[in-house]
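Give me the fold.
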Amino acid sequence: EQFRLMQNIIVNVRLPRILLTFIVGAALATAGNGLQALFRNPLVDSYVLGISSGAAFGAALALSLSWLSPNLSAFIFGVCAVALTYLFAHQKHESQTSLVMV
């Protein structure tokens, strides 16, 4: 009985969590690597690009206005933030100041 309970906990509770942890970690690593390849910069992450701030703003806006789902709104605003960052980064820069700011 005790062995059966331990086996049930390991197989049905712990093992799926461990496997999901590996899958989520691999997905996050792939997303980070994709961002670094897109911007050709090894120091890029979601905080530097404004993805996290855009997603947080979108979620807060959705919650305060009872608008869309906060998850969907966070995703949309995060994508908009990285799109704007990408557009700003690939424009012709008139001065060094604008290049440093982007």
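The two ends are 63 Å apart (CA to CA).
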